[in-house]
Design brief:
By secondary structure, the chain is mostly helical. It folds into 2 domains: 48 residues; 108 residues, no CATH class. It contains 6 helices and 3 strands. A 3-stranded antiparallel β-sheet has the order 1-3-2.
Length: 161
């Protein structure tokens, strides 16, 4: 069942990327999906079916909207800082703690932070993320974690854990 789900999901991704239902596209996509399923089956996660639960997809869509809001907000903030005559930035690297446990949730968190302008996730070590931040407002790790990480963690936990 796990292999079938992986094959079908890879084929669906291929069809979405090519956006074609021509026979040669279906054949190439199916062969590639079968090849990757056969070669990579030892590293596939065993809990894939729970990620396909409709409630998790609902929370993922909510997360996308939530992320886009904060991304727009960060774009405006960085534009303000870049255009301001005094360039009010205080860059630095902060160490923040995440309460997420799964690797996929931590990866989504790190990518969300990196895709938000003004921040860049440098490394994930255990439950800590090292983030380059354009405007470090204080030196308190708890407040830094609250500002950088907590806004995304709540929804990512509902999607992935």
């Amino acid at each position: 069942m796990k292999l079938l789900l992986n094959f079908l999901s890879l084929t669906a991704i291929w069809l979405l990327l090519t956006w074609s239902l021509q026979p040669q596209q279906l054949l190439v996509g199916s062969v590639l999906a079968l090849l990757f399923t056969a070669l990579l089956h030892p590293i596939y996660r065993g809990d894939m079916p729970h990620l396909l639960h409709p409630l998790r997809w609902f929370w993922f869509l909510v997360y996308i909207l939530y992320f886009l809001y904060y991304c727009l907000h960060a774009n405006l903030d960085v534009a303000y800082r870049a255009l301001h005559p005094d360039v009010p930035i205080h860059p630095g690297i902060v160490k923040v703690r995440t309460s997420l446990h799964s690797n996929i949730a931590k990866t989504f968190l790190a990518n969300s932070i990196t895709l938000t302008p003004g921040t860049l996730t440098l490394d994930i070590i255990g439950d800590h993320l090292f983030v380059h931040w354009i405007n470090v407002v204080n030196n308190d790790p708890e407040q830094q974690t609250e500002i950088v990480v907590k806004r995304f963690e709540k929804l990512l936990r509902r999607v992935f854990e």
